[in-house]
Amino acid sequence: MALETPNHTQTVAGWAAYDSSGKIAPYIFKRRENGVNDVTIQVMYCGICHTDLHHVKDDWGITMYPVVPGHEITGVITKVGSNVKNFKLGDRVGVGCLAASCLECEFCKNSQENYCDQIQFTYNGIFWDGSITYGGYSEMLVADHRYVVHVPDNLPMDAAAPLLCAGITVFSPMKDCQLLESPGKKVGIVGLGGLGHVAVKMAKAFGHQVTVISTSPSKENEAKQRLGADYFLVSTDAKQMQRGKRTLDVILDTVSAKHSLGPILELLKVNGTLVVVGAPDRPIELPSFPLIFGKRAVKGSMTGGMKETQEMMDVCGKHNITCDVELIKPDKINQALDRLARNDVRYRFVIDIAGTSKL
Ligand code: NAP
Ligand code: ZN
């Protein structure tokens, strides 16, 4: 493992956290040359995912500092490798969580690269050449074209950026639970944050009745009026949760902190499925009674494969689904991370990396 290898010749300006204080400061580093399978991207926007916060604070104990976060990247192609046929100069593209995978295992061959056991992430990963990967809080990115998608023309690059992680992370389990092809289900979304708010928009676009389960009563009006949710349950209100018992077919749990799954499982009908996508730093409690009395299932889901990510972008283009974003300049990243930690964002911060927006 090395910070840089000899093929890292391109100097890039970015923003990194240097230790678990999580404070972000400017960072100049090197990226690899554009290889035959690579495209170079001028980064325009990068969303601030809660995973970035987990990483800069080393919540999961896996951070390699300095860490340049960012895996909700949109930008424009400025260089194309000789093997790359599906992208050209000037294309509007997006990069999410994946930087590399083995390309040979059953999951890679089946367009489920996200479950390859040699997967490397866009940041805090180790690329094949031994270098540590640096993410989208930076002005330029070199990416293997197999992990890059097109951004539909009708989607604005700022509000589309969070689709690259938040969007695909909720789209993939919805697809897995057949929510794309069978409308009319009762879907619950736990946690109305970056992931949760896109999930509400998608579930509505796919024709479902949507219940938000939230700790924040202040989000109820927006959830219903802006995002289109049908019902809103305050998870700390036992009476409301009691009324919601056995009403939902599928629930997506996007919560970033430790919480009990018991009351959430009770909201599922018999045979219902709870998909956990939130990744708290401590284990979440899973009581057995609500599981066995309702024959309910709990599963996880991790981002999505690349084919599915392009499909998700195209579906969002078709339904005009974008994220509700608060645009910030790079010098406000620390304030944004502090506000994200306090659950004070509607609903995703996006950094205007290229400085092209009027802020
Ligand atoms: P976010 O914007 O901070 O949203 C999380 C939401 O969880 C908050 O808005 C809040 O919603 C709720 N919440 C926060 N603290 C809570 C607590 N103590 N108890 C109950 N609810 C609480 O975060 P995000 O970017 O959507 O990410 C959510 C989680 O998903 C993170 O852990 C992130 O690392 C993980 N993630 C996983 C994947 C994957 O592939 N599986 C991909 C991306 C992110 P309310 O105010 O409505 O309660
Ligand atoms: Zn993310």
Automatic annotation (TrEMBL):
<keyword id="KW-0479">Metal-binding</keyword>
<keyword id="KW-0862">Zinc</keyword>
<dbReference type="InterPro" id="IPR011032">
    <property type="entry name" value="GroES-like_sf"/>
</dbReference>
<dbReference type="InterPro" id="IPR002328">
    <property type="entry name" value="ADH_Zn_CS"/>
</dbReference>
<dbReference type="InterPro" id="IPR013149">
    <property type="entry name" value="ADH-like_C"/>
</dbReference>
<dbReference type="GO" id="GO:0016616">
    <property type="term" value="F:oxidoreductase activity, acting on the CH-OH group of donors, NAD or NADP as acceptor"/>
</dbReference>
<dbReference type="Pfam" id="PF08240">
    <property type="entry name" value="ADH_N"/>
</dbReference>
<comment type="similarity">
    <text>Belongs to the zinc-containing alcohol dehydrogenase family.</text>
</comment>
<keyword id="KW-0560">Oxidoreductase</keyword>
<protein>
    <recommendedName>
        <fullName>Enoyl reductase (ER) domain-containing protein</fullName>
    </recommendedName>
</protein>
<dbReference type="GO" id="GO:0009809">
    <property type="term" value="P:lignin biosynthetic process"/>
</dbReference>
<feature type="domain" description="Enoyl reductase (ER)">
    <location>
        <begin position="19"/>
        <end position="351"/>
    </location>
</feature>
<dbReference type="InterPro" id="IPR047109">
    <property type="entry name" value="CAD-like"/>
</dbReference>
<dbReference type="InterPro" id="IPR036291">
    <property type="entry name" value="NAD(P)-bd_dom_sf"/>
</dbReference>
<dbReference type="Pfam" id="PF00107">
    <property type="entry name" value="ADH_zinc_N"/>
</dbReference>
<dbReference type="GO" id="GO:0008270">
    <property type="term" value="F:zinc ion binding"/>
</dbReference>
<dbReference type="InterPro" id="IPR013154">
    <property type="entry name" value="ADH-like_N"/>
</dbReference>
<dbReference type="InterPro" id="IPR020843">
    <property type="entry name" value="ER"/>
</dbReference>
<comment type="subunit">
    <text>Homodimer.</text>
</comment>
